[in-house]
Amino acid sequence: MDNSTKQYDAVIVGGGWAGSALAYRLASANKKVLVLEAGIAIDGLVTNPDENQLITGNRAEFMNDFFMAMAKTPESPYVQNYNAPRPAVLDIQPIPPFTLDNPAQLPAGAPPPATIDCADPKVSIKNNGYFIQRGPVPFGSTYERRGGGTSWHWLGTSLRMLPNDFKLKTVYNQAVDWPIGYEDLSDYYDQAEFEIGVSADVDEQQIHGITFSEGYVYPMAKIPATILDNTMDAGLAGQTFDGSSLKVTGTPAGRNGVPNQMKNGEFYDNGRRQCQGNTNCTPICPIQAKYDATVTMAKALMTGNVDIIYQAVATNITLDMTTMEVTGVEYKTYETTGGPCTGTFTATGTKYIVAAHAIEAAKLLLMSNTQIPAGVANYSGQVGKNLMDHPMYLGWGLMPKPVYPFRGPLSTSGIEGTRDGAFRSERASFRIEIGNEGWNWPGGAPYNQVIDVVSPMPPDQSGTPTVGIFGTALRQSIQSNFTRQFRIGFLIEQLPDADNCYIVPSKTCFDNLGVPRPEIYYDFDVYTMEGFKAAAAATDFIFDTLGVENNTGVPVGNGGVFKYEGVKYYAQGAGHVMGTHRMGTTGDDSVTDANMKSWDHDNLYIVGCGSMPTTATSNPTLTMTALAFKAADAILQSFA
Amino acid sequence: MRKINTIALLIAFAAVIVYLGSASCGNGPGGNKTNVAHADSGQVKTPLSPVLPFDVTLPPKGTGVLETTIRRSFDVFSWDSFIAMCWPAQGHGVIGQFGDNATVWETWKKNYEVFLANGLPPAPWDTGLQSKEANLSQTGKTPANMTFIFQPFMTGPLIDQNGQYNRFEIAMNKEMFDYIDTHKLYNIQGQQAFTDSVLFPQGDNTKKTYGAIMVKASWKVLGKGDDTSRFHKVKAIIHIPALASRGIRDSSYEAWVGLVGLHIGTRTTISPQWIWSTFEQVDNAPDLGKAVNGKHYNYYNVAAGDKALNKAPAQPWNPGIPGQVPSQVARLTPIDTGTQALNDSIHKILVAINPHSVWQYYELIGTQWPVHPTQSNTGDPFPVYMANATLETYDQGSVVNGKIVYSPGVTSSCIGCHNASVTWAGRPSDFTYLLKSAQSLKK
Amino acid sequence: MTLDEFVSLSAALTGYPAVTLKPQNDTQQIAATLFAELSLASNNIPAAQLNELTQVWNSISATPPPGLPAAVQEKIIENLAITRLAQNIIYLWFFGTWYDLTKNPNSFTSPNIDHVVSPLAYTNGLVWGEMGAHPMGYSVGEYGYWANIPTLPQIN
After folding, report:
1. In chain A, how many domains are there?
2. CA distance B427 to chain C (A)
3. How far is Cα B69 from Cα A371, in angstroms, rounded to an integer?
4. Lower CB count within 10 Å: N or C terminus of chain A?
5. Confidence band of B128 (pLDDT split at 50, 70, 90)
6. How confident is the model at residue B35 (pLDDT cuts 50, 70, 90)?
7. CATH code for the domain of A627
8. Predicted ipTM of the assembly
């Protein structure tokens, strides 16, 4: 466990998306790399033979836990680890004094901090979740802390950002511009799409100014559309909403489709299976047809240039106060997921890369406050600030004719026309994801609806038996209703808000290792809430156009409720956590430069979705991977 | 050609050894219809037959019981296939008569002889059939050229007690080869141009036709502690890929390797999802918790404990790295008692031929078949899960809190997994991943 | 209740033929797995309720098929003493789950003893095939099947 004595070219904190991509790139260039991963190992991804003694997990075990879970949430395959805890969607609740019936009226200031009993870390995390939510609205997104990180339960959506997304300030006078433009990232997008293995059609993706290099083809052909996609495409042909086209297009996906011959003449093949439409991208693809970061980590480890230490929670970054360079990363270890700390060690290298989750990365930098009270890399004061997501609005209903949900990948198409337009001067843009899983997300389908007819809830909500349907009537009910279920989800843009959306390490609540838990302050501004309002209006318009019976109401995940202009909305987390160590053009208002190098410390890089200054509307994983490759290039050049 | 049913004659002939006259009893590739049972001097008489079964022979309709008599029928099919395929290839007596023998299936086409790097058509079936030199360069079950960069090892290598990596190879019979050859499925362009459903020939008892057969073999490098008299052996060229970070250069050397696992997949009329037979050398691994003190296992060390049980080795994976920690493998699903009884009976017949027959050290682990072939794409396979400890080492199931758990769709099931196989055009490839080994035609 | 009684009752409650629930050459033994839930002590099934359900079923099980659903409706579904247990048998087959008998399954009150019976009980849940789909997380379809209209099972 103790690698204190070994000197590495680079020490990477985090074995998830960005950490795997960076480790692979640096190791392929013959750099010696150490990865510190807070969570448990994945079978086959250990480097020290002794670590076979550690806890490891594998897909079969995760699938077993998923099968056996009553609530098949994104977290259901992945058991909680009290020494590297993670948030869970079941813990998203209104924050006192707000309740489901009396939700926060936005915009509002932060409520008085509620008292939280977190004396026993395990009990507190088990009962109330990992986050210390300060509100006024709960932060709805979750992540995983284990080898491969949150890639275990990503959907697979691999959209590029739009050129205008990089210059929101210039074009729409909102928030900030990125320090780079689309053209700076275009090549890295090619590389990220290759690494992830994206299935899509170039012609279809050339929207809102997105361009591709000459002769470019995606690694694999577009994944076929579902019956629902085609139904919506036909029904919405030629329609617009608020000036935006409602054209339905295929969504680029990090799932294996049919290999393409790429522009270099090679046929793409990553050796993994083609998608079988298990309709389970989130929480877990049973056959790894969907890319996850363990694929890249395996390649990194295969080089022989990478050591990885699991169950190693980084807790402090140390500095040379003369040069201001980072000198080491202190980490704590443990033997079991609920057991005590077994030691504190220091990892040392030439370069240091924090590639933890946006919330964990910020927390680590802020926790590292023994030498600089404000924390490492925080001259700008922006570390942990500008916490953003794509808060989601869900609309659901019954199609007039069967569309046969619960088949195919979770989502295969979307509506992208609404992602950009003049309206962005006034309100948030959004993309509309078309879900192939019926009312599973908003309505707990198929369980809740079957129970509704078999054991109707008595008026007093008690356990008193009631009379329902059975046999043929039940079968007919399932056939006629479930085949028509569908939902759409709006991924709504959110702007950076340093004052109202941020995380700090809790001073009072700790995990089982004694590491501070993230204390989260979170709010929606008028720009985003106008986006919700538009999403609700778009839902009505789309459903009317398609002749849909609109069943949009209270979703099963209702903890993200808020009121705006007297109307209740239920925000869902998208899992797209961004902004907490944003890049920029100066060290005064950003944490890193465009290469994700800290403005304050010459040998420290901070890489991940936290690097993103604004959210745009595209699911951020592809962009994060492209950014990781960009950072890797810069790091390699810095060695020269 | 008279096909001798192993089971029917099993008991009667178990201990009978009759010397017969000499003549070639060589069995041609793909199940040449040559009968062994005529009297030849110097020949051993045995109920075992060099003739491959066309298809399974089931109990009369409605009389079979899944777990016993129907399973037995498929297990007999497996053993009959194994015996015929391991029969001496070049006319030297009967199986195991001289202890070990070069086998029929080793004369079949290897995947790398069919799917050439330049995508050109393979040489005709008869070319090079006599070549006995195995070139075992694969360290994972999947052919190295099936993956694009350098990671053909999705589930990890298997390392024996001497720190040596297992080697794998894939071969196919003439019927399977002919189908690929005729339909030009040996390169990517050919597969893309092929718009029919890929449907390999199926063995048929009525028509007396052979179906496609594919074989996946698993070998260990013989070394310290191995009793070489208990293995089918060949001399092989062992390839070590380069690993610059560890100073390992791309190299090859010659070594004796012993057969430790053999998958046989046969497409038949009764079982269009194929019949999946899997055999292992008897010393591979103990059943979970049943290790015998003092016994030498190929992939288990009683002293090492079970903490790393059935877990993939530490990275980096390269067979050239010295001093690697052996895999610690236990079988999670014991062999069915009926299957074991059949194994015992056939071992007796093999011993009767020659007490030193290496073939007595191979056992049928199980046979998986589609019980209701038309019910779904996978046809309701039974047993639901099946794994070879040397080929699906890390997918046998998991031990969680002392309990074995199996996960549908993940835990090894031959039919379940192979159902997902596709061609380069993305269409179903009839339960074989082999076609994905095809390369682009280089002009 | 015997396994045979359980299967015939299950057929009446689910609307599926008994042979579908417990096929000849039963590879996955789902009927036996689900039946075992009825004798699982931790499920806290009142003996009287199980006995009454068994007796009632035996008293009507010989009803000729055209009249059987009406008899099940009257004697079991509308009998509040046993209907909740009958509903749980429906859930076993359609979801592979057991719900706490003392609660409405949609109340989500805790603590409860709700649980999934086994991975195979989940993957064999009838609800998925009923709508022409497959259990989420377990598909044997071929690539692109989702673009084609499925055949729904015949309802008799």
Report:
1. 1
2. 7
3. 76
4. C
5. low
6. very low
7. 3.50.50.60
8. 0.98
